[in-house]
Amino acid sequence: MKTSIRFPFKLVVWFSLCAACVNPADAIIFTNDTFIAANDFSYDGADIVLSNCTVTVDSAHTFASLGIFSGGTLTHSNGFEGMNLTVTGNVNVALGGSINVTARGYFDSAGPGTGGGAGGSSGGGGGG
Hints:
By secondary structure, the chain is mostly beta strands. The chain has a domain at 15-99. It has one helix and ten strands; from the N terminus they run H-E-E-E-E-E-E-E-E-E-E. Strands 1-3-6-9 form a four-stranded parallel sheet, with no helix packed on it.
């Protein structure tokens, strides 16, 4: 006689979150594409979980932990603000999850290291 055990969805999610060192009772679980703006601090201090969605985070934010499961992607908007995350606990990226900032950096001729105007570095005048 063959028997099978079926786990309720909540139980499977709980086991998955435990594997990622995230407390499921406190975790904010994203399953839809979400934008967290620079001035949106409603998720700061929380355990964050991404699954089958893209979460775009701009500027500085602090999370208690971060779990990115299969199909989950963490990124930031194009341009100047970027993403500056502080995670006080564990960061776990599962197979099929990603942190992807490809082609999301500073625009041409912008950002640190682009240099300023031309000039002498010795402080002297130019030659004549």
